[in-house]
Amino acid sequence: MKVLVIGGGGREHAMAWALARSERVAEVIVAPGNAGTAREEKVRNVQVGAEDIPALVQIAREQGVDFTVVGPEAPLVAGVVDAFEEAGLDCLGPGSAAAELEGSKAFAKAFMARHGIPTAAHRTFEELDAAAEYIRECRPPLVVKADGLASGKGVEVAGTLDEALLAAERMLSGQAFGAAGQRVVVEECLQGEELSFIALVDGEAVVPLASSQDHKPRDDGDQGPNTGGMGAYTPAPLMDEALHRRVMEEVIRPTVRGLAAEGRPYRGFLYAGLMVDAEGNPRVLEYNCRLGDPEAQPLMLRLRSDFAALCRAALDGRLAGEAPEWDERSALGVVMAAAGYPGPVERGAAIHGLERPLGEGCKVFHGGTALGEDGAVLTSGGRVLCCCALGGSLAEAQRRAYEAVAGIEWEGAFYRRDIGARGLSAR
Predict the structure, then answer these.
(1) Which intervals of the chain are annotated as region Disordered (predicted)?
(2) What is the pLDDT of residues 359-404, one digit of tens each?
């Protein structure tokens, strides 16, 4: 088979690497890819943007692609799957109607209310005066969210009413996230432990992936601004059989049934970001309509089943009865980011240390990288690399991942030094 992966970040590198490991796959094409995918065996980049839908359809036709897997959210919300299906091409991901679950936080909140899916108390606003009046009636802390897509950074946790008012003003004025913030959701700040729950869906059948947990704040100790994710690990010690059963029955299955009932059948990866309180009750913080990033990187490192076969089964409606096999070891990934992230960053810094050999079960996935004219690997984004490792325990996976980090450098590189701390504390 020949497979097309849409996207150019760390998640897409991990997906392309996992697909290329399949004996069924002859070649993986990545659009546009990065320096990491350019160096993988059986993988080739094409310089087509992830949101250039007509060009993506053309590439799939011209290259005789058997099926396509979509990585990032923006093309899903823009209707890339709909365009491929109209062209008679197989493409794994939700159509634009189902992808609104991530494309609009206001839609997601209303959807959860209609279908009895547990989430935080909230209100949605398009006018600042109304938002400000509601905020003044609340007790902090509060969470203010831009309604639209903001690359995982459109959420501000406000410890005071003044902070919440400022966040709402910045979003609704367009200063913070442009058009994505023209509508905001103001909600209670849930307390507990965050958890990522990702499943593969074929329209009806649901196959949960291994549990995982990521770290959104930029700085150690969960301080600083929210990012797209500074690291992740799997499995999450918090996820036991009882909680897994509750999440499936109270969140995932009602979501899939509800979307189907509303004429928005869901196919692809469904991600529920959860907050689990002290009593073990899960509530949905947000939905994503694709694999998480950086969760995908350690997940793909642990996956022992044929990833291409799983994707094909989802496309064909044959997921019922599938049970992916996972490495029993833990996996942990540490994101190395460019100075300034999650704000504007400089690009073009040469990365050193990538040629250093790594041990078994270690892998550096590229995110914001590009190849220079001389073949050097350069930074080209905010989250540059994700250094991942397997270990017989979470502590061992953590140690090995940070050993990989220690051998890589470029001017301005930074990373959190406590990825996995929550999991170790839970143990």
Answers:
(1) 209-231
(2) 999 999 999 999 998 899 999 999 999 999 999 999 999 999 999 9
Q: Can you read off the two tokens belonging to residue 55?
A: 């060009």
**CA distance linking residue 252 with residue 184, whole number of Å:** 25
Sheet holding 213-214, edge to edge: 213-214, 231-234, 330-337, 383-391, 362-366
Average pLDDT, the chain: 96
Report pLDDT for 255.
98
Say if residue 97 is exposed, middle or buried (CB neighbours under 10 Å; 0-12, 13-18, 19+).
Answer: middle
The two three-digit tokens of residue 39, written as one number? 């160096």
CB 424 within 8 A of CB 236: no
HEC per residue, the chain: CEEEEEECCHHHHHHHHHHHCCCCCCEEEEEECCHHHHCCCCEEECCCCCCCHHHHHHHHHHCCCCEEEECCHHHHHHCHHHHHHHCCCCEECCCHHHHHHHHCHHHHHHHHHHHCCCECCEEEECCHHHHHHHHHHCCCCEEEEECCCCCCCCEEEECCHHHHHHHHHHHHCCCCCHHHHCCEEEEECCCCEEEEEEEEEECCCEEECCCEEECCEEEHHHEEEECCCCEEEECCCCCCHHHHHHHHHHHHHHHHHHHHHCCCCCEEEEEEEEEECCCCCEEEEEEECCCCCCCHHHHHHHECCCHHHHHHHHHHCCCCCCCCCECCCEEEEEEEECCCCCCCCCCCCECECCCCCCCCCEEEEECCEEECCCCCEEECCCEEEEEEEEECCHHHHHHHHHHHHHCCECCCCECCCCCCHHHHHHC
For residue range 310-332, what is the model confidence (pLDDT) as tens digits?
A: 999 999 999 999 999 999 999 99
For the chain, the straight-line distance linking the first and the last C-alpha, in angstroms and rounded, comes to 42
For 14-29, b/e burial (b = at least 16 CB within 10 A) is bbbbbbbbbeebebbb
Summarize pLDDT for 90-121 with one digit per residue, the tens. Answer: 999 999 999 999 999 999 999 999 999 999 99
CA distance 395 to 193: 19
Strands 27-32 and 43-45: parallel
Residue 427, pLDDT > 70, answer no
